[in-house]
Each structure stands twice: as C-alpha cells, then as structure tokens.
Write a structure and sequence with these properties.
single chain, about 180 residues, alpha+beta, 4 helices, about 35% helix, elongated
Length: about 180
C-alpha cells in the first residue's frame, strides 16, 4: 500500500513538472521573433540544467486502524534528464560505422581451416566425434554416413546461420559439425 501511494505521488508530481515545462515551451514557441524565441529556449534549457532533478517525498504513517499511509511531498520539479549530448566528432564516427559492425567482424575472421585428424570415435547414435592434433574436438550433427581415418587432413568451413561443414579436398561429401572443445 505504501509503495503504491509513493509511486502515485511521484508520478503526480512528475506530471505537474512536465506540464510546467510544456507550458514554458509553448510560450517560447509563441514568440514571433526568431532571436527572442531562441533566447527563450536557451533560458529554459539553462533553468532545467540548474534545477536538481530530484523529487523529495516523505512517508508518514497515521494511527488509523487500517494503517493508511499519507504522502506529504514538498513541491519539486522532476525533469526527465536526457543523456548529455556527445561531441560532434564521435557522433559522426558512430553514424559512419552504423550497419558496418557485421562486415568489420567478417573482415577479421577465417572462413576455412585445415586440420589433421588425431582420433575418430562414434557416439551411441553413430555420429562422429573427431579429435584433431591441435586439441580441438568436433562432433557430427547430421545423421549421414561420413567416414574418416586417423591422420587424414580435413577442412572445416563456415556455413549458413553459424553452422560449420567438415570435408576433405579429395571427395565432394561434407557433413555438418559443431565444436565441443
């Protein structure tokens, strides 16, 4: 109950503070002269920055039989503070890089690696579990038959949707795999 009343009081005072700012903005917008309008907006912005953006609310309980909480709040202005404006140079850089994140990640990655098979084992479902000489362990995720021997050189390449394909250069078959270790 206290939390509900406190939240309601804070929202009430925030709405009043926003209404006051909206009234000042409409007054500035009604000014006909461009320079005076700009000065009005600048003064409004300066007054918002100088006013602390806090709301003081004190909760006092009454001695009523149901334990009703009364909220007594000092009039304060609560302003939705926006993030400070970033300098122009980093903002331009951010805009220049927008949409290029994926391409930059792709530039620094390898699409295909060649590995030597150290050992090959099968799980109970017949899927291959391949350990390579560099310590990596990969497992077959498809149910297709794919045969490998110890010491064979294979490649693993990126496929669609973040998956990987394993194959050899001397045959056309590939199998989908995932890395375990």
């Amino acid at each position: 109950m206290r939390l509900t009343l406190t939240a309601a009081a804070i929202m009430l005072f925030s709405a009043q503070a926003n209404a006051s700012i909206e009234q000042q903005l409409t007054q500035c917008a009604a000014t006909a002269d461009k320079l005076e309008r700009l000065i009005c907006y600048d003064n409004l912005a300066a007054s918002i920055k100088s006013t602390p953006a806090t709301t003081s609310a004190t909760i006092e309980t009454q001695t009523a039989p149901v334990g009703v909480a009364a909220v007594v709040a000092a009039p304060a202005v609560a302003v939705a503070a926006s993030a400070p404006a970033a300098p122009a140079a980093p903002a331009a850089n951010i805009e220049d890089n927008f949409g290029m994140e994926a391409k930059r990640v792709q530039e620094n990655t390898v699409d295909k690696i060649y590995l030597d098979v150290q050992s090959v084992s099968e799980d109970p479902y017949g899927a291959l579990k391949v350990t390579f000489t560099n310590g990596q362990v990969w497992k077959q995720t498809e149910g297709r038959k794919f045969s490998l021997k110890q010491g064979e050189k294979v490649y693993i390449e990126k496929a669609a949707l973040g998956s990987f394909l394993m194959g050899t250069d001397n045959r056309n078959a590939q199998v989908r795999v995932k890395r375990l270790k």
